[in-house]
Structures are given as structure tokens and as C-alpha cells.
Amino acid sequence: MANxxxxxxxxxxxxxxxxxxxxTPGQVGIIGGGMAGLTAALRLxxxxxxxxxxxxxxxLGGQAAAFPVAGTYLELFYHHLFQSDEAIxxxxxxxxxxxxxxxxxxxxGYFSEGKIWPLNGALDLLKLGFIxxxxxxxLGLVTAYLQRxxxxxxxxxxxxxxxxxxxxxxxxxxxTLGAQLKAKFGSYYDQVAMVWxxxxxxxxxxxxxxxxxQEKLGxxxxxxxxxxxxxxxxCRAAGVDIVTGSGPSEVRVAAGGGVELVFDDRVERRDTxxxxxxxxxxxxxxxxxxxAYRDTLSKLTYEAAAVAILQMDRPLTDIYxxxxxxxxxxxxGVIEHTNFVGPEHYGGSHFLYLSKxxxxxHPYFALSDxxxxxxxxxxxxxxxxxxxxxxxxxxxxxxxxxxQPIVMLDHRKSIPAHQTPIxxxxxxxxxxIYPEDRGTxxxxxxxxxxxxxxxxxxxxGRPWPxxxx
Length: 469
Ligand SMILES: Cc1cc2nc3c(=O)[nH]c(=O)nc-3n(C[C@H](O)[C@H](O)[C@H](O)COP(=O)(O)OP(=O)(O)OC[C@H]3O[C@@H](n4cnc5c(N)ncnc54)[C@H](O)[C@@H]3O)c2cc1C
Hints:
The protein is an alpha/beta fold. The protein folds into 3 domains: 3-62 and 224-300 and 414-459, 3-Layer(bba) Sandwich (FAD/NAD(P)-binding domain), CATH 3.50.50.60; 80-105 and 217-223 and 302-405, Protoporphyrinogen oxidase, mitochondrial, domain 2 (Polyamine Oxidase, Chain A, domain 2); 121-213, no CATH class. Helix content is 30%, strand content 24%. The protein is built from 15 helices and 21 strands. The strands form 6 sheets. It has a 7-stranded mixed sheet with strand order 9-8-17-18-19-16-20. Strands 11-4-3-15-21 form a 5-stranded parallel sheet, with helices on one face. A 3-stranded antiparallel sheet has the order 12-13-14, with no helix packed on it. It is globular. The structure holds flavin-adenine dinucleotide (FAD). Flavin-adenine dinucleotide binds next to helix 1, strand 4, helix 10, strand 16 and strand 20.
């Protein structure tokens, strides 16, 4: 068995086992059982690799996972698909749950100046009475323009704040899209690249046939667990060993070649390891990685999210997705799931999410669940004056630290390579999704892509170079 010495650009040297070279299917470890990890596991197992997937949590699905409620399942964080989400739609068909994916009309609104303004198309834009008519027309024209732009590269070098403020004028910007940017990105609102905002508009555009049509969004009957379970089943059928409630605390170069994974009670070795965890988690997992790669990862920032789910005996509004543009209200979105997927699917109960994105050091992120709900509930009366806390029968709070990667100017240059400085160790996470915004569809695409990259690298003898003779 010949060992190769690999010298990296940053000067580090690693030993690599040449038996891992070539097209022989090797042993692959995958860290993380979200959509990206499960998809990559399926593809590599289908290609003949011996795959083990470790998920630290007890349930699979990562950010898209659902928990049991009302005799069925509901996502910890609200989820739907857009009609452009082709990768996950194809995967659903492949794993046998294509028929569970239904396309339902969405119903969007905007809460401003004490009133709900429906926002389901171009005509609704013209009725937004909290800005003057000329601002409404301008908002409509800017939206129509963004819906038509395909060359997004021009939006990489300008912030959304700057571009939209100019395009809309100060007043319209502050009361509409500027308020939304602040709601989503907090103190980072003026650093987000316009390309991120363009991606959002484009996704919504492709969920309608024409601007006058009603938008349709996708949902898996029975929750996103339906595709997660079917995908996990397909993985197992292809030979993947899925281990939940377990994950490594460190990954490092293995002395004899490959990658070593350090668990609480043991050390394992794989030829190839794919980490699908957020960049901040990856930095802790791989302390031996230093230099430029660590610097790149350290600069990537995420917004966190804290979401309260209320189970109620009646609806709060008739809107599915209500953006809150009232700075006094502590949450920034009311997503009334049962106005999208009817309460008849939940034994007659109504479910709504009170959502807020925030910096991970925001005081709300550390509040107890009880205090967070107590903080949120009184404000529901502003949205529906009849609201009474007795309507709420149960509630839950879920938090996610790496909820939304922040796409800053020229993000493309900050995207970390999938191949990390440790030979055989790959990174595949939501910061590498670009120019589209993160989402389950793109994590499926990422899983497909990373599996192909691993196979191509193997076929070409990378990341282990041909040993010197
Ligand atoms: C509030 C909110 C709303 C959203 N809404 C939508 C939506 O409407 N539509 C949509 O398509 N997407 C939505 N998303 C985004 C979508 O859920 C994610 O982009 C996608 O699920 C990410 O999948 P992933 O596999 O890339 O990462 P993750 O889901 O983050 O999976 C990573 C996994 O790695 C595990 N892990 C971490 N460390 C270790 C370790 N040491 N060992 C083992 N495992 C480890 C984690 O537990 C996790 O399960 C939303 C996300 C949030 C937070």
C-alpha cells in the first residue's frame, strides 16, 4: 500500500492512502441527516459505495423535519415548495411519494398601519392604501421589472437596500420592501446583496403562470416527513446505514489515509466524508483546518430563527402568509398553516407559526419558551382584535441557529469550496447555494451535486494525487 504526500496551497502536508484512488467504490461517511445528507447518501449508495449517515438529532430531516400533532405531522418550521423546485419534485417521484405532493393556492397578506392588505397579485399592489398611488405604481413596475430579469449577475455588487431604495423612493421602500428586509435580516439588512432579493422575486414569479394568476405552492400531504421518510427508506434499501442520535465531535486526517471521525466512545475511519452541517458547526468539527479555508468559513454569517407554533380552536385570519410591517410587533411573520392546508387535515385544529429571524445573540433567542410565547401573544390582538388567549390550546417553540445564510455583496467569492483542506473531507451546506435562496429543493440539488463531485474526484484520483513512482 503506497502512501502519497499531499501538499496543500496553504503549505500543510497530509499523508494519503493510494488504495483510495480510482473508481473503486469506497466507504463514505455522511454527517447530517437533512435533505442534503440523505440525498447524497442515496446517490452514493446507488453508485455502489458503502455509506454510513450519522444524524446527531433523534429525527431525520434537519430543518425540514416535522413532529407529531393532531394525529398527523407538522413541520417545526413552516414549509412549502415553489413550482420551480424541480429537484425535490423529481426526488419525490423517484422515492414513490410524488402523489403526496399537492399544489395549493397560497394567500399572502401584508400587515401595516393596523390593517391586513391582501397581496396576491398585481391588482392587490395597486390597492396598498398605506402608500400613495404613485408609490404603488412604482412598486408594481419595479416588481414587474425584477420578474423579468434573468441576468442576475448585475445584482451581485449592489445591496438590496441601495438598489430598492433608489428604485422605489424612500417612502415606498421604508413602508414595504425595506420593512421586509429589516424583518428578515435585522442589523444586516443594509448588507444583503440585491441578488438575494431578486432570487425571492424570481421564485414567487415562477409559482404563477402570469402575474394575474393566483400563486400555487407545494406541500406534502402528511408533512415533509413523507418525503424524508421515503428518502430514508430508499437509502436503507440501497444499503445506507443510517444512525440517528449520534454524530462525530471531530473530523481529522486519518494517519493511514482517509478521514477519521471522533465519536464520544470510538474513532471511525472512512475514505470519504461529507459534512452537511452549517459552516459554524463545521469549524468546530474540524479544528485542524486553518488558513484561508477557515477564514472563508468564519466570515459566513447566518440569521437565526425562533418560531412559536400555536394550536388554536379557530383561525386568526384568512391569510396563509402574513408579513408583518409593524415595528412594534415582536414577530415578523404570521404563517397560518391551516389557511394553506385546511384544518380538516388536523382534526379541525388551526395551526399558525409566529416567526422571527434574528441574530443568534438577540435576547429573544435565549428567552425561555414560556417567556417568548408570553411576549408574542398579546400582539395577536392587533392583527385580530377579537383574539383571546383562550383560543390557544397548545403551543411549541423551535429555534434554529443557522436558519438563513446572509448573502452579502459578491457572495460568490465567499462561497467555500466543497473540497476542504483535509483530503477526502467535503462540505455541502446552505451557504454554497447560490444565487437562489436556501430551501429544501436546493439542498436536494446540493446532495445530488456533491455525490457527483465525490465520484468525479474519485474517478480522477482526487483529492489524492497520483502517487509518485
Ligand atoms: C424558519 C424556516 C423556514 C423554512 N421554510 C422553508 C420553506 O418554506 N421551503 C423550503 O424549501 N425550505 C425552507 N426552509 C429551509 C430548508 O428547511 C433548509 O434549507 C433545508 O432543509 C436544509 O437542509 P440541509 O440538509 O442542507 O441542512 P439541515 O437541514 O440543517 O441538516 C443538517 C443536519 O446536520 C445535523 N448535524 C449537525 N451537526 C452534526 C453532527 N456533529 N453529527 C451528525 N449530525 C449533525 C443537524 O442535526 C441537521 O439535521 C426553512 C428553514 C427555516 C429555518
